[in-house]
Amino acid sequence: MNKNYVKTSRGVFTCFSSEEIKQNKPTLVFFAAMGINSAYLDFYNLFTLLDESKYNLISVDMLGSGFSSDPVYHQRTLENYSKEVSELLAKVGGSKLFIVSHSFSAVYLLNILHQKQKDFQVLGLIGIDTTAPKIMLHDTDQLNSSLNEAKQSQKSNQGMDTDINPWLPDPLAKQAKKIYQKKSGNFFEIDELKEAVRTLKKTQDMNIGTELPTLSILSALNYPDYIKWGNPYFNENNASIQLVLNGHHFLQWLHPQLIAGFISFFVDNLI
Question: Is the full-model pTM beyond 0.85?
């Protein structure tokens, strides 16, 4: 995949994309979880399995994370994230736009999609163990633990408070370790974690409207919480699908072939 830089008024995003982008193909834009990770490295296995002759594949590293530049507006609020991602999606464009989101990045996209967008249109949302605000507000200990890890990493200047895709080829695994060690515990990661509860409270009553088809892939680990508190990313649209896979939070590392197949079925069905 090609490494590209997308300049916006709020910072320069680093994106990895298919060798040849064609406007007549569906465009799948991938976002990684909260923190410092690169979407390209986290979703690497999926990219090797999805058919680039059928889809434009684009991974986006959030500003301050992965290979992207620091954001112009340093505070990692819901509003700043939403404006940054909205401007990026408007530049990506395309008439057949699909979003693939893992974990906490879905909260920012939930806020974006909850609003009426004029600059871009999304045909479908694909979530992989997406963060449901009501669930997370009942488990803030997890956020506090992540914040403490990030602060310790900042102090030690040696530790690393994130996981690396275990199935990366050795050169990419070494690159991931190098960049994550460099960014681990940076201002933007810490500020995002400090803002997390406020972000969750602002989005706790939001959900994806029934007009947008969604594919929601949940882990068996977290599914009981979705049963208890609800899944805001799954709706009553006739094309929407909810699936549960055995495993932990990083389902794309455990079941890349299955997930690539589900994504292809979902997108092809809508196109």
Answer: yes
